[in-house]
Amino acid sequence: MTTNTDHDRPAYGQGSSADRPLALITGVGRTVGIGAGIARRLAASGWDIAFTCWTPYDDRMSWGSEPGATEVISQSLAEHGASTTAIEADLADPDTPARVFDMVEQQMGSVTALVMSHCESVDSGLLDTTVESFDRHFAVNARATWLLIREFGRRFAAERGTGRIVSLTSDHTVGNLPYGASKGALDRITLAAAHELAHLGVTANAINPGPVDTGWMPEGVRERCIRSAPLGRLGTPQDTAHLVDFLCSREGEWINGQLLMSNGGLV
User: Fold this and answer.
1) 8-state DSSP, 205
2) SUPFAM superfamilies in the record, alphabetically (predicted)?
3) How many helices (H) and strands (E) are present in the chain, helices listed first?
């Protein structure tokens, strides 16, 4: 499924709508999610936005899917003048990344920034993780990240120095083994891109946003994280979005090949 909207607005703070660069953001399935927050922030900064979601994943999680979310998100981006495309994409399928890029290029043009906020996340530890779950986590969190970056590198056609890759990671592995382990692999893949795509002038960074409650936290976890945070609060999607916005800006070019802890000082 895709949806499209188109409005005129200056890009990068100047010029016409034709000047707006295009960001592809994965994992934008719910209005309260980090991906949606990033999409809105980049749209406000002058980016057009293509985004992916995968409703069957939300359906099997405790929070459930959010009917009409892609339309609401697309409308919020259009209010900032962004053209948008929403694509249902099963990133466990190794053919999906190439198909996503094909669709985005056909509908909107070439991608300048790739922001990966998708994930597979099912709580389980060393003793109760199944092989099937372990493999799915690595397929979505690690393999799909590699394949998306590979497509981005193969197709990148924007001005040297403007290309951006940002991935969202986590160090939560205890009691969350397949998620944390596969996110660790995501880190390494992303940071390798900073060097292997240097000839394109593309920067690549990973962000660990710390505890951000987008509807998944039990009350006990919320309270424990708040007590442990020096600022006495949880992270918000906007906290992460502001950092992604800076990394994707021209001013953010010198930040490259970094794993950035954006967690309010939580240890």
Assistant:
1) E
2) NAD(P)-binding Rossmann-fold domains
3) 9, 8
Q: In this structure, which amino acid lies at residue 230?
A: P
Residue closest to 41 by CA, chosen among 265, 260, 51? 51
Give 108's DSSP letter.
T
Residue 21 and residue 266: Cα distance in Å, rounded? 34
Q: What is the value of pTM for the model shown?
A: 0.91
Cβ burial of 219 (10 Å; 0-12, 13-18, 19+) is: exposed
| CA nearest neighbour of 214 among 230, 234, 242, 188 | 234
Note the pLDDT tens digit of each residue in 49-67. Answer: 999 999 999 999 888 889 9
* Bridge pairing between strands 4-5 and 84-88: antiparallel
> How long a stretch of residues is the chain?
267
pLDDT in tens, 87-127: 999 999 999 999 999 999 999 999 999 999 999 999 999 99
In this model, does residue 6 exceed pLDDT 70? no
Q: What residues have CB less than 8 Å from 15, skipping those under 6 apart?
A: none
Cα–Cα dist 251/260, whole Å: 16
Tally of CA atoms within 13 A in the half-sphere of 232 that contains its CB? 0
Q: Note whether 151 and 98 are within 8 A (CB).
A: yes
Alpha carbon separation from 246 to 42, 116, 170 (Å, rounded): 9, 16, 20
12 is catalytic: no
* Cross-strand bridge partners of residue 51: 25, 86
Q: Which of 114, 179, 240, 248 is catalytic?
A: 179
